[in-house]
Amino acid sequence: MASASSILKQIRGASADAIDFCFPPTCRVCDARAQRWPLCEDCHTAMLELERGDYCTLCALPVAERGAPCPYCLGEGLFPFDRVLRLANYQEPIKPLVVAMKFHHAWPIGEFFAGRLFAQQAIRDLLSTADLIVPVPLHPRRQVARGYNQAEVIARRLGKFGRVPVRQVAARLADTHAQSLTQSKSLRIENLRHAFGLLYPKQVAGRNVILLDDVRTTAATLQSLGRCIRSGKPARLSAIVVATADPRHSNFEEI
Ligand SMILES: [Zn+2]
Ligand SMILES: [Zn+2]
C-alpha cells in the first residue's frame, strides 16, 4: 500500500504537471516553450555555442583562439588574481538571463548558472583545489531591496556541486551599485576604491580563495574586492564570473 508521503508526492507531481500544462514555462530569451528551463531548445544550443568561445584564463576576456596571446592583459593577468575563469561573453542568450536574475527577481536562474559553470572542466579543476568561495557582497541596503544576492545564489549552488564552503568574509562599505548607471570607466573605478572591508582575515589567510561575481564589466568591482581579500594573505586568489562584457562594446550601462 502506498504510504501517505508517496501519495502526497504523487499529488504534488500531478499538480506541477497541471501547472506546466496550463502555464508552460517560457524561454527567458525568446518566449518559446522552455524545454530546458530557463531556455528553449534553440536558445540552449546557442548558450552552449557561446560557452565554447575562447578566452584568456588570466583575465577572462575573449581571445581569437585557445592559447592565443591576450591583447588585453598581455599575459599579465588581472591584478590581483592568479586566474579568472568565466562561463561566456555577455551577449545573447546569456544577457537577458543575467538581467532577469538581477533585476526581475528570477534568482533561480543563478542556480542554472551554477550548473552551467560546473559543467566546465576548467572550473571543476579550479574548485577541486579551492578552500573557500566568496561571493561579491551587495551593500546591505541593496540586498534588502532585492531580497537576495545573486552572486551568493550562484556561489552556494556551485559550492555544493564542488564541495567547497561558501563564506561571506567581506562587507560592502559603500552602496556603489548606482554605478550600473555610470558608464565612465574611471568613475566606476574611483567609486570602488574603498568599497569593501575584510571582516574575517583568518578565514582567508593561507587558503585558496575564489571570488564569485555575475558579470565582469570593467573588473573594477572584482579588483576592489580582490585587493581587500589579498590583505588577508590568501595562498592563491582566483575569480569565477558568469559573463564578461566585451571591452570592444560599451554595454556597461545595462548591467
Ligand atoms: Zn528561446
Ligand atoms: Zn588576458
Give a quick summary of the entry.
The protein is of the alpha/beta class and 255 residues long. The protein is 38% helix and 14% strand. The termini are far apart.
Draw up the topology in text.
Blueprint: H1 4-22, H2 41-51, E1 83-89, H3 94-103, H4 108-118, H5 121-128, E2 132-135, H6 140-146, H7 150-162, E3 170-172, H8 185-191, E4 196-198, E5 208-216, H9 220-230, E6 236-244
Parallel strand pairs: 1-6, 2-5, 5-6
Antiparallel strand pairs: 3-4
Give a description of the structure.
This protein is α/β, with parallel strands linked by helices and 255 residues long. It has a single domain (57-254), classed as 3-Layer(aba) Sandwich (Rossmann fold), CATH 3.40.50.2020. It has 9 helices and 6 strands; from the N terminus they run H-H-E-H-H-H-E-H-H-E-H-E-E-H-E. A 4-stranded parallel sheet has the order 1-6-5-2, with helices on both faces. A two-stranded antiparallel sheet has the order 3-4. Strand 5, helix 9 and strand 6 form a beta-alpha-beta unit. Helix 4 (108-118) crosses helix 7 (150-162). It is globular and about 50 Å long. It starts with a helix and ends in an 11-residue tail after the last strand. The model is unreliable at 251-255 (pLDDT under 50). The site of one zinc ion (ZN) has 8 residues, from helix 2. Residues 56, 58-59, 61, 70, 72-73 line the site of one zinc ion (ZN).
